[in-house]
From TrEMBL:
It comes from the Archaea. Residues 108-260 form the DUF7436 domain. This is Uncharacterized protein. InterPro entries: DUF7436, TrmB-like, Tscrpt_reg_TrmB_N, WH-like_DNA-bd_sf, WH_DNA-bd_sf. Residues 6-71 form the Transcription regulator TrmB N-terminal domain.
Length: 262
């Protein structure tokens, strides 16, 4: 493809435009001969070039055509191409949003339970979207089943969590001591590298893992009954009284926990 072709001209349009630059003002018949564009196509090509502002028509009999200056032509073609690419970008964004939505696990109509294993792609995507809804704070406890999982598995959810967290979000995490055995020694550096404001504390034991987002929704991890290193799914709760109770439980654990980094 030629450079003008990359800017959107067809081969016939390029031939006619280049011929006009050489011949100067010319009739359609003269341009057909000069450019080797068939007589049956020459008027369509000229009309297309005129519509794009690359050719001007003189009101003579027969009509004669002039090419606009190359610099003007290139700028007009570039503007056209830029607009097309912007439209294409918006289309791809719409497609990406549709794909992202389709990757999320479907909530059953009669419950707020999402089935998904620890570290699975669908649950990592769901976690990212879940945290993305937070505008002020996330309070979370991290105990079972994370205590028995490997860091390779946990890292997928760790990355998804912080990928969804906004830069002005306040994140408070309480880890059980057993979770610390799974996490890498570089955890403080990993947390420092995140945009959100993160504070971590540690307590000896956490009975259940859960989070409270903006004190308006809580999700609770359901350990897998046959695998201590896995999760059956998570259940989401929007009942005000239940959320308030989980927030109270978090604050109790938080008050008794020790800061991970002094």
């Amino acid at each position: 493809m030629t450079e003008l072709g990359e800017l959107g001209l067809s081969s016939y349009e390029e031939k006619v435009y280049r011929s006009l630059l050489v011949t100067g003002t010319a009739t359609a018949a003269e341009l057909s001969t000069a450019s080797d564009v068939p007589r049956g196509r020459i008027y369509d090509v000229l009309n297309g070039l005129e519509a794009r502002g690359l050719v001007q028509t003189q009101s003579t009999d027969p009509a004669r055509y002039d090419a606009v200056e190359p610099e003007v032509a290139v700028e007009r073609l570039l503007a056209e191409r830029t607009a097309e690419l912007r439209q294409e970008l918006e289309r791809y964004r719409d497609v990406a949003e549709t794909v992202r939505s389709n990757l999320l696990p479907t909530t059953p109509a009669d419950s707020n339970l999402w089935l998904g294993r620890l570290g699975s792609d669908e649950m990592s995507t769901a976690l990212q979207q879940h945290v993305r809804t937070a505008t002020e704070s996330v309070h979370a406890t991290v105990g079972p089943p994370y205590e028995s999982a490997s860091w390779d598995v946990l890292q997928r959810e760790f990355d998804a969590f912080f990928h969804g967290a906004a830069s002005d979000l306040s994140v408070s995490l309480v880890f059980s001591e057993r979770v610390l055995d799974v996490l890498p020694e570089s955890l403080p550096e990993l947390l420092d590298s995140k945009q959100a404001s993160v504070e971590v504390r540690v307590c000896p034991e956490i009975p259940v893992s859960f989070d409270v987002i903006d004190q308006s929704v809580t999700t609770i991890d359901i350990p897998h009954p046959q695998s201590p290193a896995d999760r059956l799914g998570v259940v989401g709760v929007t009942d005000v009284d239940v959320i308030a109770e989980f927030e109270r439980q978090f604050q109790t654990l938080w008050a008794d926990a020790t800061p991970l980094i002094e």
